[in-house]
Design brief:
Layout lengths: L3 E8 L5 H11 L17 H6 L6 E7 L2 E7 L7 H8 L4 E7 L6 H12 L3 E7 L8 H12 L7 E2 L8 H11 L16 E10 L3 E10 L2 E2 L3 E4 L5 E3 L2 E5 L3 E3 L2 E2 L4 E5 L13 E4 L20 E7 L5 H14 L4 E7 L3 E8 L2 H14 L4 E3 L6 E5 L4 E4 L11 E16 L3 H10 L3 E7 L4 E9 L7 H8 L5 E11 L2 E8 L2 E2 L5 E4 L3 H15 L7 E7 L2 E8 L15 H21 L8 H9 L1
Parallel strand pairs: 1-3, 1-4, 4-5, 5-6
Antiparallel strand pairs: 2-3, 7-8, 7-16, 8-15, 9-14, 10-11, 10-16, 12-13, 12-15, 17-19, 17-20, 18-19, 21-22, 21-23, 23-25, 23-26, 24-25, 27-28, 27-29, 27-30, 30-31
Helix pairs in contact: 9-10, 11-13
Amino acid sequence: MDNIRNFCIIAHIDHGKSTLADRMLEITGTVEKRRMKEQLLDRMDLERERGITIKLQPVTMEYNNYKLNLIDTPGHVDFAYEVSRSLAAVEGAVLLVDATQGIQAQTLANLYLAMEQDLIVVPVVNKVDLPAADVQKTKNEIIKLLGCGAEEIICASGKTGEGVEEILKAVIERVPSPVRGRSAGTNQPLRALIFDSNYDEYKGVVAYVRVVDGEIKKGDKIYLMATGATSEALDIGIFKPDYKSTEGLKTGEIGYIVTGFKEVGEAKVGDTVTSGSTALRAVEPLTGYKEVKPMVFAGVFPREGNEFEELREAIAKLKLNDASLAYEPERSEALGFGFRCGFLGLLHLEIFQERLRREYNLDLIVTVPSVAYKVRKKSGEDLIIRTPRQLPDQTEIDKIEEPWVKLDIITPKGYIGPIMSLTQDKRGIYKNTEYLDEDRAILHYEIPMSSILTDYYDKIKSASSGYASLNYEYADYREADVVKMDILVAEEPIEALSLIVYRDDAFRRGKEIVKTLKETLPKQMFALKLQAAVGGKIIAAERLSALRKDVTAKLYGGDVSRKRKLLEKQKKGKKKMMEAGKGSVDIPSDAFVKILKR
C-alpha cells in the first residue's frame, strides 16, 4: 500500500491535461509506442473532434517500483461533476496552468473542489515551450493563490515531454499513500466507492471503484449499500488504459468490477460496495457524492414514435455514464412520448444529443427549455405547469408564479460592472457584495430561475473573460406576468417551439425565433409563413420564399410570351401546392438547438 499513489490532473479547459497524460503514459511505458496516439485517454470520437475531455478516464501506471493511479478529468464547467467525483477517489491533484493564459475560472473552481477534499496539490506551469509563454507571471499567480514557494512549482510541456518525469517524482514524494478509511487493522471489511460506471454490451454494468478498506477478489459476493443489490464480482482488474484482469484489488487501489448487473440503475455512482456476507453488511457506508443541480431543462422526443423504447434504454445507459443527467418521462400531444431532461449547461445538452445520435442512432427533437410554474385558476384550483402545453387559457388564469433563486457570482473586481448590468437586464435584484480579498468579490442576487436557464451562464463567461463562476439555490415562488407564445410554421402551431415568456419581452423573443427559423429551415416548394402569436394575435412574422425551379431553362430564343406562359403555369402550381402543403414541413433538430442558444 505504501507504493501506491492516487492522483488526478485538474485544469481549465484546453490547458493541456490530455496531452500531459499522453506523455506520462509514454514515459512510464504503460502504452507501447506503436499504440500511442494523441489524446489516448479520450475514448469518444466526440472528444477527439472537439479537443475536449467529456468523461473522466482512469489509468494505472508503473514507475520506479511505484503504482501510480491517474484519473484524467474534463475542464469545461458543464462537466464539473466528473471532476468532483474524481477528486473523492484520490489523495493528490496535479494543478495545471497554461503559461500563455494564466489562472482562469475553472482553474479556481477545480482547485477549490480539491481543497474541500483536503488533497495535496502539485502546481505545474504547462506549455512553457510556446513563444507566448509568460512563466514568471504565471508562477506569481500560483504563489499568490496557493501560498507555496516558487521551488514547489514545476515547469513542463506536455507537447515536448519536458518536466514530465519531474511531475511523476513530485507525485511520489508529495502525495501521501492511501490511508485506510478507519483504523489500520488488517482484517477490515470491504468498503469500495463507485466513482464512475459504464455499460458494456457484453459485460453488463462495469463499476469503477476506489477500494477504501479491505480487499476484493474475483468471484467474491458483493452487496451495494444504497440500492441493496447483490451480485458476484465476475471480473476484477485495473485500467491499462483498457481493462486488464487481476486477481483482486487491495486497500487504496483503483480499478473496475464487472458486477454482472444488467439493469443500469443497480450500480449508482457514489454507492458503497461491500462484502456479500450478511454479517459484514452492517459496515458504515462511505459518504458518496452531493446531488448535482441541473441548470437547463428540455424535452427530448424521438422523431419516430416507435423509437421511444430505444430512447429510454439509451438515456438509461447514458445516465450510468453521466451521473449529472436528470430525466423523467413526459408526454406531448404533438410529439408523443419522450423525456424531460435536466442538464448542467448548453454544452452538456449538445453533447448528450450528439451521443444519442451517434452511439444509439436516434433521430431526436429537443424542445426549448423551461422551469416549473405555479398557476392559480379563477376557480381556485392550483396547477404545476412544466411545459407551455399545460398552460390553461388566459381567461381562466387568476395568477402565475415562477421560481426564484438566490444567486452568488464570484468574479475578479474588474468585471463587476458588466456582470451587474447583465444581471439587472435579466431581472435580477441586487442584494449585496462581499470581498474575498483585494481582487475577488462575491455578488449576491435574487433572480427568476427562467432568466438563468439558457444563455445567462455563457454571457457571464463572456462579460468576465471566463473568470466568473456562479452558484444558485432555490429561494421561493413569486408572481410573474408571463404568457404562452406559439410559433406557427405554414400557419400550423409547432408545439415543440411554444414557450412561456414575459409579456413585455414577447415581441423581442418572437422576432428572434422567427428570424432563426428563416435562417435554419430548408426552402419548400411553396412560400412559408413563419409567425409568433400570443393568444391568437400575431406579434412577429417572417416569410421564407419558395424553392424555385428554373422552368425557362430549356427555352432558347422564340417569343417572350412562351416564357411568360411557363412562369404563369409554375405560379398556378405553386398556389395549388401552398393550399395542399400546409403543415407538412419537417423541422430539422438543429433548428431547435439554434433557437435554444438564442
